Fold this sequence. Notes:
Blueprint lengths: L1 E6 L4 H13 L4 E4 L3 E8 L2 E10 L2 E8 L6 H12 L1
Antiparallel strand pairs: 1-5, 2-3, 3-4, 4-5
Amino acid sequence: MCTFTIPFTGDTTSIIQKARGAVESQQGRFTGDDTSGDFDVSVMASNIRGSYHVQGSVMNIEITKKPFFVPCSTIENFLKGQIT
Length: 84
């Protein structure tokens, strides 16, 4: 399991839309609203599943399922690049 935070500027709705777009562009599933939700996406024939919770201008992310060969830092860096 991985946990990390992504600080952001701007409004929460825009950040959630970016996150949704990043997941859905990979044919993944993203459900939730401006405060919390969950997602899953297939990467290299493996599944990544997680949830998020927004508190102020920080998105807290918990990855609950991932391939053992994909480091948490890779997932974190990808999401940061897509969201911020």
